[in-house]
Design brief:
Rossmann fold; 9 strands
Length: 234
């Protein structure tokens, strides 16, 4: 009961799986959730399968975290959908899917997690957003990312102030394009050029940023850019 507990959404692969591993390495117990997550052999990792856009998934994740580990200290809102295409080519299905995961998914689980953090008098919430929400790039048209992840940036600041006197910090990590299996190798050269430093970031760059925020008690309301200079300009 005295060991801290982190909840990671989108925790089955890529950045989410790396975050689960990193929090475990720092002694946290972890609750990992995604539609495709499978049971873990690690007794200190609880896997909860479900669609984060569904409020019942958020309810199960937090209630099972409390039943198994007795507390929730950190929430990493990593789950997200990114669809890049010209604005007029977005479909109703694109719009519904992106809002369901990026916005509704954030809302339902964050509300429940913060309610548990309040009971203990402290906690930390981190969103994974995107620099494209602040620095549009004509080479990567992504209005739905700007709409939803930009909203998460604003919500991060609002929640940080609302809960500043209650021991709950709220921050975000705003990445550039990160080298993950989502990007085929043949696209890497073009994606590298989108960053002033000349290359994409690695998953470890984002994980290290989240861990910094986790261990920075005087930092709240911060949008930490991990984007190879994108936020500074081109």
């Amino acid at each position: 009961m005295h060991r801290k507990v982190a909840v990671v959404t989108g925790g089955s692969q890529g950045m989410g799986a790396a975050l689960v591993t990193a929090y475990r390495a720092h002694g946290y117990r972890v609750v990992a959730t995604s539609r495709s997550v499978t049971p873990s052999d690690d007794p200190d990792v609880l896997s909860v399968a479900g669609d984060i856009a569904d409020p019942s998934t958020a309810e199960r994740v937090i209630s099972e975290a409390i039943a198994r580990f007795g507390r929730v200290d950190a929430l990493i809102n990593n789950a997200g959908i990114f669809i890049a295409k010209p604005f007029t080519e977005y479909t109703e299905a694109d719009y519904a899917a992106v809002l369901a995961v990026n916005t509704a998914g954030f809302f339902h689980i964050t509300q429940r997690a913060i309610a548990e953090m309040e009971k203990r008098g402290g906690g930390h919430v981190v969103q994974i957003t995107t620099t494209l929400a602040e620095r549009a790039d004509a080479r990567v048209p992504a209005v739905l990312a700007a709409l939803t992840k930009g909203g998460l940036n604003a919500a991060t600041r609002a929640l940080a102030i609302e809960y500043a006197t209650r021991g709950i910090r709220v921050n975000a990590v705003s990445p550039g394009i990160i080298r993950t299996p989502m990007h085929p190798p043949e696209t890497h050269a073009a994606l590298d050029t989108l960053h002033p430093v000349g290359h994409m970031g690695d998953i470890s760059d984002v994980v290290n940023a989240v861990l910094y925020l986790e261990t920075a008690p005087f930092v709240t309301g911060e949008i930490l850019h991990v984007d190879g200079g994108q936020s500074a300009g081109h």
